[in-house]
């Protein structure tokens, strides 16, 4: 993996981690305002200790593990990390739309 790919992977992982934390905060805010969790896997965890454990502990730990094993995950996997990054970015745009139109 080249230094350029390592740098890009680093920023993608930082972005995914940041978007994940913002998603956690905004999800709780929107749930309090009558919305529901669209992710069926996480919907069953809402209002339990599992939800913050997954969003604030497990996912960041997985991102750190990916970074620590960056040389073993291969170039191909490093090249596709823009997909979850773009997915979370799209979710942030959607949240922004909801905030503007429903507050």
Itemize the secondary structure elements and their pairings.
Blueprint (H helix, E strand, L loop, with lengths): L2 H30 L7 H4 L6 H19 L1 H10 L2 H21 L1
Helix pairs in contact: 1-3, 1-4, 1-5
Notes on the structure:
It is a single chain. The chain is mostly helical. It has one domain (3-102). The protein has helices spanning 3-32, 40-43, 50-68, 70-79, 82-102. The radius of gyration is 15 Å and the shape is globular. It starts with a helix and ends with a helix. The mean pLDDT is 87.
List keywords for this structure.
mainly alpha, 5 helices, 82% helix
Structure in a nutshell:
The protein is an all-alpha fold and about 100 residues long. The chain has one domain (about 5-100).
The run of helices and strands is HHHHH
Give me the number of helical elements.
Answer: 5
Which structural class best describes the helix and strand composition? mainly alpha
Quick one: biggest sheet?
A: none
Determine the mean pLDDT. 87
Number of strands: 0
Question: Helicity level, as a percent range?
Answer: over 70%
Domain module count: 1
- Tell me the fraction of residues in β-strands, as a range: under 5%
